[in-house]
Amino acid sequence: MDANGIHFDSGSTELNQRISEWLNWDKNENTLNEIKSLVKSSEWKALSARLLKRLAFGTAGLRGVMQAGFNAMNDLVVIQSAQGLCKYILECYPAASDRQRGIVLGFDGRHNSKRFAELSACVFLTDGIPVWLYSKTVATPFVPFAVKELNCLAGIMVTASHNPKEDNGYKVYWTNSAQIISPHDKNIQANILQNLVPLESSWNLDLLKSDQLKDPYDAMSSLYFEKLAANVPKTFVSDYNRKSSQRFVYSAMHGVGFPFIERGFETIGLQPVVAVKEQRDPDPEFPTVKFPNPEEGKSSLVLSIKLANETGCDVILANDPDADRLACAEKDPSTGEWRVFSGNELGALLGWWSIRCYREEHPESSLADCYLLASTVSSKMCRSIAKIEGLNFEETLTGFKWMGNKSVDLMATGKKVLFAFEEAIGFMCSPTVLDKDGVSAACQLATMVCYLRSTSNQSLSDKLNELYDIYGYHYAVTSYHFCYDPVVIERIFERIRTMEGADSGYPKAIGDGQYKIESIRDLTTGYDSTQADGKALLPSSKSSQMITFSFENGAVITLRTSGTEPKIKYYAEMCAKPGQRDWNASRTTLRDMIDRIVEELLEPTKNNLTPRSE
């Protein structure tokens, strides 16, 4: 077979076709030469891996390694994806007046992010859709914010968040400014497959000179910080922030967050952050960290802790590279040790804080129409707070795509969403942005620190312990085992479902009957033992495994598979009642339960599972 002047025969008709398509379609010299080199070396196995599978456009978008091939992030795949998304948007909004609402595009500091955004812009401009393309790197929240404020049809953020430096991604927001959920993801994928041939105009960056392309950076930045300030009570700014000498060490983790944190702190009267200079500015190589992910805890905060110790700061704030997540650490003055808070602990603090701020601004208002949201694998602490304080609590599936869309639904009925969070250090401190936002979360958390120091001389740890006293101690443990064989994963979960017999045969207890199971929810099969009809209220999906066990002693343990990694994860939490003071016993009991459930249900030795290296 011949294509682009090269003769080849892989022995597979399908692979020959895919190779031919790549050689004829790709106009990026680097990735074209990658495939040419593999063809000339007859690397048919490598070519099969790269070309026979497509990078799937799943819920929220794309993410993958940057290299040549249909299963990776590169110019050709980005153009194909933009063409499919564009056609789907026009299918949903065929009126010419709707088309003029345009689309928002942003990018982070990774290799190729700006180029991927610009190529995408060319696709939409070709079809007569105006484009708002940020001229500089932005925090991910600025894309959904602009979709909402500019009333756009959709938004795209080119980012791979905290993934390794080799990766990039394509995150899509729908007209309601929340991340896309089904059926949009499936429909976009179908449109991509119908529009694979790249148009000549899709490669033409001269289109970026069009008067249909505008830069929203200045206008959206000003509006964002105006709305951020409106979400912090004015009395807190004047009485606590402006009067405080509290300083915070800040790491942008080689990402985009610093200028937004700097302006946010200035806007609400906080002292300027003490930035980790080595990590302050975007650097796609992430040279000082093994993983650019503040979720990794102290290992990702080494430079931050060093700087804090040198400067006498006792609180550290850190964003991930696209600034939609927030990590926080606090120094214990008695021991000098640093405590890195978990996402669940920060969720409890910020959940309480959201109520405190609302009451400051609306002292006479009832909380009956107010909501706190959390994903199903996150701590139930917000549920406990809501129950006692008279708010509503809603649980969603894992991921902010669900919390964002749930917020849209609630607000459409006149409800107020005060706060939403997920244990993976993602926080939505107001519905100004219907996604996790590490910039606003940092500003709120820093204000909370100033407030606590001034009003009660409390640290964040002190306040968290006080919340446990009032609402009940909540102790959570999250970890995982690696499993590289999908067949083994399937067998493990099917065994769990049939341990007591084929029909709803889930286990009734673990630990030789010591820990009795009160209820079970299986979001793979759609079963929920607490419902009269046995059907789960949350959406179920057969494409992933997820079973939650609620125990008579207050513990909740969820077993689930990862959508992006070869892992079986567990999320365990002991939810004690208010007034139960034996916190050590709660921790000991939960750890014993985790050991039992791993051994009895996952059978790691028999199934050759590899535990997480702590």
TrEMBL record:
Pfam entry (one): PGM_PMM_I
Domain Alpha-D-phosphohexomutase alpha/beta/alpha, chain residue ranges per copy: 55-194, 224-331, 371-470
GO cellular component: cytoplasm; nucleus
Family matches, as SUPFAM superfamilies: Phosphoglucomutase, C-terminal domain (SSF55957), Phosphoglucomutase, first 3 domains (SSF53738)
Keyword Ligase: no
Required cofactor names: Mg(2+)
Compartment(s) of residence: Cytoplasm
A molecular-function term among this protein's GO annotations: magnesium ion binding
Gene Ontology biological-process entries: glucose metabolic process; purine ribonucleoside salvage
Domain of life from the UniProt record: Eukaryota
Major place of residence: cytoplasm
Keywords for this protein: Carbohydrate metabolism, Cytoplasm, Glucose metabolism, Isomerase, Magnesium, Metal-binding, Phosphoprotein
Record has Metal-binding as a keyword: yes
Family: Belongs to the phosphohexose mutase family.
Cross-referenced PANTHER family: PHOSPHOGLUCOMUTASE 2B-RELATED, PHOSPHOMANNOMUTASE 45A
Protein name: Putative phosphoglucomutase/phosphomannomutase
